[in-house]
Input
Amino acid sequence: MELVLVRCGAADAAPGILAGQAPLPLADRGFAALERLAASWIGPSPRLLYCSDLRRARQGAQVLAARFALDALPDPRLRALDLGRWNGANFGAVGAQQPQAWRDWNADWVGHAPPGGERWLELAARVRAWLAGLADRDLPAMGEQRVLALTHESTLRALLSEVLELSPQAAQRLRFEPACASALRLEAARFEVSYLNSPQFLPP
Output
């Protein structure tokens, strides 16, 4: 089984915005990039299509759903890191208006939450729960089939941290571009990386 992961396309937001879980729409360039990515798929359609339930992800999933004639399965566990009162805020303004909270979070973003938000450890826990849900579908029995999931950069980092047993700090060094694909292959009950951060889908 191959798990193909896509970062959501660019959101329609001003520069410097902390997107988090803000209800931002997908930008026109985000739609276009996802359409190009979808057109590059090779082989049979994925068996399942998951997505974050945030607005921009659900809109992006419509592009993939149309390409593969699938119903997208929105799941809140695939949301981006919840930045609480900083969702949708300008990071420069946050640093100026709440300097101590900003310093505290930047000093310990793994165990410390933004005001009203969640810790990285909580993001990792919900990603872990989503992976466990996939396992409940008896993934080994899926053989060579593929599962597609559209989500966000922070979520992708948490997911790679879980399946590859990386520290959060190491996973933070992974860069995922908007509307790019990565793939993990399940072999002998463990995930292996097939490719990362590709502007097109690659053969399984």
The CA atoms of residues 3 and 147 lie 5 Å apart. The mean pLDDT is 93. The chain has one domain: 2-198. The two ends are 9 Å apart (CA to CA).
